[in-house]
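Exam review. A common question shows you a sequence with its structure tokens and asks you to describe the fold in words. Practice with the pair below. Do the first one on your own.
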Amino acid sequence: MSQFHRLVLLVSLFSPIVAFAEDDVGAEVAQTSEINIPKTDQAIKVDGKLDEAFWQDATAVDFRYETQPGQNIKPGVRTTAYVIENGESLYVAIKAYDPNPEKIQASYKKRDEIYGEDIVGFKVDTFNDERKAYNFFVSPLGIQSDSIEDDVLKREDSSWDGIWSSAGQITDFGYVVEIEVPFKVLRFPNSKGAKTWGIDFVRFYPRDVNHRFAYSPNDRDLSCTLCQIGKAKGLNDIVSGNNIELTPYVAANKSEFRAPPAQTDWQGDGVDYDTGMDFRWGVTDNSVLNATVNPDFSQVETDEVQLDVNNRFSLFYSEKRPFFLDGAEYFSTRYNLLHTRNIADPDYGVKYTGKNDAHSYGVLVASDRTTSFIIPGAQSSSLYTLQDDNMQDVESDVAVARYSLDVGDNSQLGFLATNRSAGDYENTVLSIDGSQKLYDAGTLRYQIMHSDSKNTEDMQQRFGLAPKTTGRGFELNYSHRDKHWNWYLTHADFDDDFRTDLGFLAIVGNTKDVGGVGYRWYGDEGDFFYEYKVGGEYKERHLTSGQKYEEQKEVHFTVDGRLRSYFMVGAGTSDEYFADQWFYRDYQWFEGSLRPVGQLSVGFNVLSEDAIDFRHARLGKALRYGVYSNWQFNKHWYIGADINKTDFDIGSEALFDATIFNLETNYHFDDKSYLRLIVRYKDVEYNTELYSNPEQVSEDTRVSRQLLYTYKWNPRTAFYFGVSDNGFENDTVNEFERTGKSIFTKFSYAFQL
């Protein structure tokens, strides 16, 4: 055989793959809002090469629109997705073309932190109810990001982590990603035959602005998003399989502590070993049973420092533990009546969540070794921990139940009950909530709540509570949002004794009326700024006695533009009744951010205000300002830092000056392993002459540091090794003193059966 004939034969053998890679020949292209998902009996090797033969039979989906900042215009670059399934997994491949591949922004990052770089993916509404959707996105290097989108509450929860596979490759024409999502990761109707899911394919193309390209158009005159995405048909007889997942962990920690100047010797009990397990079982295609024994995540995730000086209300910290995150959206209401971070140290927990047709439900029970909750008020709140006569933490039982019903188009009615009890203490909350779509751009939302509480003698003495208290609260909200206009009206009313000990609600004992209006318009093509917004808000609060104690008015102006820039300026007045007197406050703020070059983003915020010194009930002046920067130095190394300062003056003298600094830097060796350094710093200088407390220190500095190595095979199979320490300096010591140090390791492995 001649060399020419050998060449012809070679080309003919590989022509399907070559044609697919260059011209997408052979794949059926979807031209409507309905996509047929074909079936294959082949498996996939997720490597980003698209060399499996079945891709020739996949349905091709072109990204037809730019929806941001352009409004349903033709995209500036081409993107095509390919979709097919094999009964066990959904396969998606996406080819993202780029005329300048050298400008593609991609780096090794932690999961869920790729937004702002080039990413592609899809969202899928598996129940086709236009209320919730799974989002799956991938960077050109295969780094994943996933979330659950709630179109009723207008929230997106990126803390959800599914176990799925992805890979990406940068090519000479752009980049390619390959995705496999096992059906056992998803929840969908437990029915035989063909199914219809909502689906959309999305690409973010960050250059001078961050363009959003999609398969489905987005009408800004509609208040819903998922009601506008396309429909995927097919998926015949797919099942989630056994879907049993066991994730045991083992951990070892050696911690030592001391309390200078009284205690200068290090104290500790040696190495502390710990173990626990998370269990997840997909009982049916649309319901999941979770259980956990002794969950622990405290040594791995760290909270950013927040300023707690001159702050009357409790600070909020988000949940990070996998057991509580899985299915958390089933318990969501407009008010945060279940903040699982309040379940601080559980012995065990069991949770069952699911959806049948229009009915969603969830049940959670747990036993918590620590019982801490917020005692709320109209003008302040306190964090309380239940303890026995020996000052030991008291264990409590936790129970939660949630039911919601889908009503009509994009409307919902729900019920939630929570209970926490221990001995002569108990708190029960009952709630009814709903969302009613009135017209395309208008929605009515409401929530009615009732609480019953039994209070211990210590709670009665410390907070002036009766042995038994009951309270009620409700909120009614109407909102309108279209292409240009948005407005809203809210009325909320809470009794003095309403309390949600499993939730996060710091302010009660008041009524609140809020009204706001905004208008947006758009720049012309080629303008530096492409979107402008102006708005205003009026808010008024009254105590349950009828006494008005707050009246606030503000206006603001916002622009979005090139260099991915954002700027906002605003001003307002706030009249506040506190400690039997009125304080009249003015405030102004200015904030913004932009990306001047490549992977460097910078931002700032400035707030100048008349501020109340709540400890001494007097008016002062506060200047709060800060800057932050996020820099992806190269494909492997990231550094992010923010510094915020507060200068609080009484007359011509400083009351306190505070500085907060947070630093995080990561070096990613590849897509699975990285080394992370975190530094948290807080320093407050006090003018003791202006404080009534004779023991007030003149300066207080707090520092904590953590160095952590992580290797993650997937969200729940991981190895950690780290060291951390913390310390302080104030008037009681002569120099900076370390007060704690630890070395720790943890290994968890997800067995999928």
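Now try the second one, then compare your answer with the model answer below.
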Amino acid sequence: MGLFGRFFAWIKQRGQQPVAKSDGGSADPAATVEVVDEFGRRLEVPRAEWRENILLPNLKQHWNDPDELAGLIASACNDGFRADVIKASEHLCKIDPNHSRGANVWAMVLAQEGRLGEGCKVLQRKRRDHGDDVQTIVNLGRLRLQQGKVEDAETLFQQAVQLDPNHTDAILCRVARTKDPEAYKAGLRRITELPGSWKAFLWLAEQLLQEREVDEALQCYREMLERAPDHLPGDVLTKMGGDLGNVGCLIESIQFVAPYFKPEIHGVQVGNNLIKSYFDLGRLDEAKAVLEQLYASTPVALRNILKYWEDEISKQEAEIQESPDPEMLKVGQRLIPGPIWFPNHHDLEEAFEVEALEEISVAFVGSSYEGEDLERVGFQRSDGAGRFTRALPLFLSQEVYYRHHVDTFTFIPWLEAPQSAYAISRVQADFEAVAGMARHEAVQADYVVYTHLKLDTETRWSVELSLIRTIDARCLDSFVQQIETERMDEGLLAIRNRLQKSLVEHAELSAQPVSPPYELPPPEAWSYYLLRLEQLLTLKIASAEREPAGIYGERDIVDGLLDQCLDQPQNPHIRLMLAQGIKALQRFKPAIVLEFKDQVEKLQQRYPLDGEVGQAVAAYLDDILSDTVETEDFGINEASQ
């Protein structure tokens, strides 16, 4: 860690600061700064653009606001823009009522500019005019050390630790130059003997753990906890739990940290260690309990690590789940009429509904793929191929509905026993079976479109699409279309266009112009769009279950639906997908809806939908957030099989 690696740790941070992705001070024009926008999205901004449009205007705007200015200077120095804040740092030193902060920031910038002597004078002047504080003494000692004045530095570090024996920088600087382990431990023990001292036990225990003196280390923690305040700081819990976990003392890590952990105070930093300990011990329910506590108190921009753990826990649960007895399996069908996002709500039905021009209906069936060496019967997490086999029929169903003005239905195989889950077939279905499904009394479709997926390679799939007449199960047309998994738009466009042609030629359907409010995203976003269709399906099926099980990643789904709205801010049906997802989630995870309420309200305010239909959709979403929408049928029906 460099000279000022810890220098800004004590500066009061003002919100989420941008973090440079490139090395500090990089002149590379392609380098970027990562920023977090008001919706919690991480965005890459070119360094030059960030400097001109964000840093410099903000410095000017907050020139006489010490709190904001200090945060901007810290961020700029960390991101390699130190040259732009030299004058601001000097100005801060003059106006900051927090004399320690102002002096230390200015001294830090001077030192990084190689002006060590001037930095020392700034800190000495602060001590003379405004008295001593630990951070100023420590940083003056650091500068003296850089000047080669070791004895002066050691004296200053000793003064600092006597002034506050629990100041992290003071403790570490006091013992940092000690190379011999025994002398290092002796130095820490001397600090623990100072009046009011307790924090030095952390590093003493760490050294003992590295020497495998576990019992002695645990005794250090016990003594520290006896002396420490009731509400332990997050950095203490993080270090204690992390050090114990690093040497495999997982149970002890939980025993010493969990009783003091308060998610709303200690946040992800401490919670992450707890989750890992529970996870590594196989105590998944306790790991999930901590995860839920953190989700309720963690800003959206900091949730990446939580999503990681949610995914890891789900994987582990799937791995330890026993394969079902084939005799116990009960598979049914979930039937979705029209588009999955179609609003069964009186104020919106007329806006999105098209009048069927012909008394013909088309059903869609998928949910089958082959090409991987997997068990024939067993549970597994949803993967990309499985999601695609459900999303493609949903996508084609809505396209045919709006482009041919006929009724459409999508069948989704659903495992009803021994537990609820999507069902996937590992073999291609028989056309007679598919036609029989489409002849179901609730549908009585005239035609059925069956899509079967083959995984040719990791990056290339083949979709075999068959148009079947239900009355005699005759295949009227069939074709195979390859899809590149990294970019699906060309393959999806080809499938959509070929199906349209097939329906016109073999089912004698007429092509109709598509008019708003139905508008697809641009083709390059279709793979992303299909994922959101499948995720919306998951939420709506879960909401229809009395006790939904096996659902995970609900927050990630809402994040995706929200991102899609931000990418397509004037698309009514995209906004309606978000509304339908939130409404579904409200039925079985209302606490998660509350977590996103501010973001969705901000979306509504920042990007109001235009037109009569847009305003109706926006009003519908507002009513959902205020929980005034009457319970509605989501159109997920059971079709026995």
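Model answer, second protein: The longest strand covers residues 407-417. The CA atoms of residues 556 and 588 lie 16 Å apart. Full marks require stating both points clearly.
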